[in-house]
Amino acid sequence: MTTLSTTVFRLATEQDAIPLERLINTAFRNDTTTQVYLSTDHERIGVTSVESIKARIDQPDFTVYVATNLAGELLAHGSVRKLDESIAWFGMLAVDVIFQHRGLGSQMLAYAEDFARRELGCTRMELNAVNTRVDLIAWYQRKGYREIGVTTPFPYEFHGDWNGVLRDDLRFIHFGKDL
């Protein structure tokens, strides 16, 4: 079994896209609460695709990174994007279900914050979370993130035949933290 003390952070490559698609979608589908999904039929709803992952990896303003074990197996995914001279955006944190609740998400967030400060020169990190994900929101708040008074609609159009699978009251709440 892989221990988290052997975690390696690196930039994602296009070769990572297929295993990342599986990791990200599995991690997001692992939510067995009714915070996002209405039924267990959510296996057919995808959060991302191989093409979408490759597009983000190829975007010059995105930094897509992964955590691996020493054997190179993907354990987690995250991305950072510079919004302006002082603000970076953290997105799509996904941890392999085997490694959830073991501190890897905290390591991924800390890596993103350090990267934003060190490589991008940013002094603030912002992110969003689905309004009904109370456990995730509480986790970000424990990490120092606070609501900034902005919400945006949930992109149902990217989730195919979502009716009856996803709650219809979803939206994103935006959070920020000075680094």
UniProtKB/TrEMBL annotation:
Pfam families: Acetyltransf_1. It comes from Neocucurbitaria cava. One of its GO terms (molecular function) is acyltransferase activity, transferring groups other than amino-acyl groups. Residues 7-168 form the N-acetyltransferase domain. It comes from the Eukaryota. This is N-acetyltransferase domain-containing protein. Keywords: Acyltransferase, Transferase. Gene3D superfamilies: 3.40.630.30. The keyword Transferase applies.
